[in-house]
Amino acid sequence: MFQFDLSKIIQWISERWHRKSTLAIVLLLSLLILLSFAANLNLSKIEPLWWIVIVLVLGSIAFGWIWSTRIPRVSSDRVGFIVAINHEEKSKQGKFSNDFIKVLKELLYAGNLRYQFKVIELNEFHSSKIIDREMASDYLKVSRGHFLLYGNIKERPLNNQPHHFMSLSGIVAHRPIPAQVQQAFSKEFSELLPGKLAISAENDVFTFEFTAQLVEITAQYIIGIASLVSGNFQYAANLFMDLQTRIKSDDNNFPSIAKIKVRLPERLYQTYSVWMGNLYDLWFSTREKKLIEQIELLAQKILQIHPDDYGALLISAICTFLIRRDVKSAKRIIKKCDTHKEGTWLYSYAFLFAYEGNMKTATKLYLRAFKRTTERKDVQLQTEQFIVDVLGAEPNRIQLYYCLGLINYHSKQDLIAAARDFSQFLAVCPNGQFEEEKREARIYLETISDKNS
């Protein structure tokens, strides 16, 4: 007599559960079982209540199948790390999860970072579908993840010893960034992954842990880059500094770790530079004093990496003046920029001499600055606003009105504003002070009058 082995049936169903054919078989069997209970498979004897029960049961099975086979999604407050690695030996998939995925989760969850990770391991059904970057990209989009690590593990003999051959690839998705930048991240992610590894079956736990650490380090590095591009500078800096500390104390010379170790200083430099520039623009529009100290700190970090960085030197000099009114130190910092053909540093240098009252040198420097091009179109406007702010705080620096006149006349070619500034300078300047500049201011006013007549 034929006997059913319930455990084998359940195992068979679970192994094939994600197939539509399995759903059809389960629905059919369930229907037959329910009909046999309802009326011994005699449809004419089934009461209406049983039809309702049958519909509810079959609907629940169908809904359960849809729910259990869906692609898991990452919540918006988490950084999603999707793992889709398919083991050739299905019976050993669970061991791989314990040896590799467990370590990866522990590493990613351990960090005290601003964003929490969510590691999702796709089951065998979904993992087996991801065989190329296009399919991986589709899964990453549906899951709303940020990283997808995919590949496979095969068991083959090597030198008469059993080995696991692991092949890994990865892609990155970071929605706030342009597609071409996302592709660059994906390329770098895959480039830094260990790629193909031959793992001795006798030492697979250690090697899986080592591989998981490599993946975690690579993921942290790529997340840092993505955070940088998407404007989360503090998070990016934290990730890079943490990595730098970890890798510095690690004597491992694995190629991908060696590459990251070489690239980290430049990534930190990029992070600090963009962060500093953004904060400076924010300060210029808001004039929040608390921002200046943070900007100066970032400039110092940049100069520790690249002592001759032009932008950091300029902003460091500005911060030195604004925070401490240390004109001597600010001039010494700006002097390091004198080899640059770009003219912004000359505006700063000229201002510092003018602030001290050395108008002869200041005027020469301003006239040199007016002949130079500047990287930013708003340098003249920012310089003018900076001087106006200083005059608001220190109205006794009357010589700065003359500087405003020079900027408006020569650089901005705003004759009305220039006439106003020169007139203001003449009105507030006492007898016996800045006589040469007063004489030049009168000449400028006559010239402006002639041009306007």
Describe the structure.
It is a single chain. Among the domains are: 6-69; 78-230, Rossmann fold (3-Layer(aba) Sandwich), CATH 3.40.50; 369-453, Serine Threonine Protein Phosphatase 5, Tetratricopeptide repeat. The protein is built from 19 helices and five strands. Helices cover 66% and strands 10% of the residues. Helix 2 (20-39) runs antiparallel to helix 3 and helix 8 packs parallel to helix 10 (255-286). It has a five-stranded mixed beta sheet, with helices on both faces. Strand 3 and strand 4 (161-172) form a beta hairpin. It has helices at residues 6-15, 20-39, 48-69, 93-110, 124-129, 133-143, 179-192, 204-229, 233-248, 255-286, 289-305, 310-324, 327-335, 344-356, 359-370, 379-393, 399-411, 415-428, 435-452; strands spanning 78-87, 116-121, 147-158, 161-172, 196-200. The radius of gyration is 35 Å and the shape is elongated. The protein is α/β, with parallel strands linked by helices.
